[in-house]
Amino acid sequence: MSGLIGATHAHPTRQNRHSHHFRPRQRRGLRGYSGPAIAEWLQKALSVPYELDARVIPDGFDSVRDTLIDMADKANCCLILTTGGTGPAPRDLTPEATLAAAHREMPGFGELMRARSLEQTPTAILSRQTAAHRGACLIVNLPGSPRSIDLCLKAVFPAIPYCVELIGGAWIDTDPEFVKTVRPSKK
Amino acid sequence: MSGLIGATHAHPTRQNRHSHHFRPRQRRGLRGYSGPAIAEWLQKALSVPYELDARVIPDGFDSVRDTLIDMADKANCCLILTTGGTGPAPRDLTPEATLAAAHREMPGFGELMRARSLEQTPTAILSRQTAAHRGACLIVNLPGSPRSIDLCLKAVFPAIPYCVELIGGAWIDTDPEFVKTVRPSKK
Amino acid sequence: MSGLIGATHAHPTRQNRHSHHFRPRQRRGLRGYSGPAIAEWLQKALSVPYELDARVIPDGFDSVRDTLIDMADKANCCLILTTGGTGPAPRDLTPEATLAAAHREMPGFGELMRARSLEQTPTAILSRQTAAHRGACLIVNLPGSPRSIDLCLKAVFPAIPYCVELIGGAWIDTDPEFVKTVRPSKK
Asked: Would you list the domain boundaries of chain B?
């Protein structure tokens, strides 16, 4: 089973981008998965209102790809965090499904998450996790274990709000006490 | 000329995975190549019986791809280490041939080997070495020089036995005095 | 707008590779872009005569790809440094255009430039910059800001002269006081 968590937005324009009201919805179907750990992490990190759309689906290429497309296009998520399915086992197809659903890969995410994970365990090189975007929705592959998830999110999240802004998604901001958003100063 | 060294296994089941008898075969055809250095390294590293299948073939896309496929499918190798052919020169086609023979790439191997090699020389960024698997066979591209080979193997080998296990290959273990195998503890 | 700077050579043979006279041409069309910063950097770095071919073109896939092909094939550049267009915004298509114009990617360049840039800012992971070669011409994607350009060039330039040599381009050498060229000693 693969877990996907999406943070939904309502196509805010630059004018009303702070006004979209994202109420937390009931998280269900995440029994035994790292979804709750990710949801908790987002709750600590995000300083903007948002709505969660958490789904647990069977492993596989089609299932993950189709769910990503649905969450990006129909549910209007501007950020989807997947968990699990990034290893070398035959059932691990989340990176393939991510690239199939997305328009462009951003290899720096995977490189950094693997580099940080390597400080914990040499098997980090087995992860094929990556990030890519489908239109205004950024998709980031996270590992399966909660400890690794925290490590990876801490590493890449400072760049996520600016990334989502650049691809035309919602305005995201974070609690700098927990994780600091960085936006390059415009020249 | 490209060198390829495969460690063969006999499709061991979980029951008999320690019983497959891999006798060292005569290594021939490796005159002047780094094959012997790799073979020696494996002899120090592996604590399980294994059989070597060492081949030296002409550089080129078809030659390397077809040999990889033959070693994986017919010779039942669960690990193939290539040497050479990863640079930017026109004759260097080992990474291309590897990806053509394989089902899925694992980019973390190349990233780590380049990062480690960079500590020795800035030209490490010219290496296009990668790793990928064809079914139950892991293929890892190593550089040509013995010193770099040791550096690269020391970096990635701790994760190789677990990787080969995950893709359904043989049970591999190593002498922890020489290189320590890491397998994540199951939850 | 995207900037491209090519260092031209005249297909020097091994015999006359030091004799090609590359006079600096007038640099024009680089108003407000990082082209001048790159040109200055090259002037400090290169200890061989060379000729610059600097072009500013509209952003886009076709425009960048076609200009790269023209600079490599018609203008005989052996090194093209692009600036800008590597981010996740929809108009950023320089890496795609680079790969479309090139024969083979060298992922180590992008990995190292992102790793170095990460020491400055977490948004470095958003860069999709890479390097690739089209025949005897090496193409390297640089970021848009002058400070990042210096950082990236300092990181990868030590390997560039040897790389251009391997792909059959001109003999390049650098002022070791500014940036030291590394060529592995032949065995």
From this structure: 2-166
